[in-house]
Amino acid sequence: MLPQELEKIEKKIGCSFPNLRDAAERSKKKSDELAAAISTEFKGLGDKGVDVAGIGLLITGSIARGEITEGSDCDFLLVSHATPSHESVIQGLDAVERVLADLNLVEPGGQGVFGDFTTAAELFIRIGLERDSNPNMTRRLSILLESAPFLDASVRDVVLEKVIERYCARYHPSYRKDVDEPVAVPRFLVNDLIRYWRTIAVDFEAKRWRKPRSGWGLRYAKLLSTRKIMFAGGLASYLTTGEYLNRSGKKSVKERYDALVEYLRAESDKSPAARLASLFEYLGSSGQNSLAECLKRYDEILGLLNSQKTKDALKSEDSSEMQGIIKLASELNSLLEEIFFEDTFMRPLTRGYSLF
Predict the structure, then answer these.
(1) Is 15 helix (H, G, I), strand (E, B) or coil?
(2) What is the pLDDT averaged over residues 201-218?
(3) 8 A C-beta contact, residue 158 and residue 122
């Protein structure tokens, strides 16, 4: 089912997002199949005496976004509250890989970020400094921005709760005993989101430089579209935090802190496109039209990517398919600039929190 934030724009503007709607339906069907198969596999492990209690399976990427296309991979991560036995980890990973093969889902890439195991503590204790590795940052922000639980949902709940509390620690009443200044935008979280987006862009160029003949067209297309919407959606969520809190009517430091954590937790259950669409109510009429047009371009790109033939053609960055996506992505980028830099509501927020 299409997210209600997108349906609202369809009704208000009189436009449609057919490819996003189709992708949502495909994703729901595949998610149901995946959840059932995972449940069966892990029950079987438990019946064999393998201790899988407290292990959660988190899926990120297109399935979690509700935007699965033909040939989509399935980025997954096993996460546990504690450190399980070696056997539990290996058996759990093997079980997930069997399910992916049975459902014709492509396994994660070979970078070692996904398709692996980590503890919940790793994700929320190491934010920043040298021990916050690229894989750890990618996992953490992916869980915040585009994830869904497929085994023991409480694990994801705990990770999100602890990560959000860590980002918002300076707004906790114990930290702000003598401060009456209201919470506006969580700068720590915004800065980490921006760092993540810039890291994605820098690492893409570094990888392409190392292996120039590897056919980077599809990854480039995703960088220009799905990755950019992921960033824009997250930025939209976090920049509008203060406005949401003002509308909530919460006054005390504790009330606003609780509302802040609750808001950020709820946003983590929305897809990036839905988060971006949530800006609609804050924008002026010109910004609303730009938002609708931006999402229409994204919808078109998603439709093109739902074809293995197109994905194969993208191996060549000079192909007509690649040039078509680049054109749409350029228009999408211009529309994002109109939303974030020209709308009277968004401009001061973007200027005040996103650059300096």
Answers:
(1) coil
(2) 84
(3) no
Residue 115 DSSP class: S
Q: What is the dihedral of CA 123, 131, 64, 2, to 10 degrees?
A: 90
In whole angstroms, what is the distance from residue 314 CA to residue 199 CA?
A: 23
Rounded CA separation 138/134 (Å) = 6
Q: How far is CA 67 from the centre of its chain?
A: 11
Where helices occur in the chain by DSSP H, the ranges are: 4-9, 18-47, 62-65, 86-102, 120-125, 134-145, 153-167, 187-210, 217-224, 226-239, 241-248, 253-267, 272-277, 285-305, 308-313, 320-337, 346-353
Q: Where do the structural domains in the chain lie, given as residue ranges?
A: 1-153, 168-356
pLDDT for position 178: 64
Q: Across residues 21-42, what is the average pLDDT?
A: 96
Closest CA to 217 of 110, 320, 302, 142: 320
Residue 91 pLDDT greater than 90, yes or no: yes
Q: Express each pLDDT in 237-252 by its tens digit.
A: 999 999 988 887 777 8
* Closest C-alpha to 62, from 3, 20, 10, 1: 20
- Residue 73 DSSP class: B
- The whole-number pLDDT of residue 176 equals 72
The DSSP bridge partners found for residue 145 are none
- Position 180 pLDDT exceeds 70: no
Task: Identify the pLDDT of residue 215.
Answer: 73
Residue 195 has pLDDT above 70, yes or no: yes
Can you tell me whether residue 338 is helix, strand or coil? helix
Residue 280 — left, alpha, or beta (φ > 0 → left; ψ -120 to 50 → alpha)?
A: alpha
Which residue is associated with the tokens 């200027």? 351
Percent of the chain with pLDDT over 70: 97
1-153 maps to CATH 3.30.460: yes
Please choose, from the candidates 139, 52, 123, the residue with its C-alpha nearest in 3D space to the C-alpha of residue 91. 52
Return all residues near 342 (Cβ < 8 A) that are at least 6 apart: 286, 287, 290
Gap between the Cα atoms of 108 and 115, Å rounded:
6
> Cα 100 to chain center, whole Å?
21
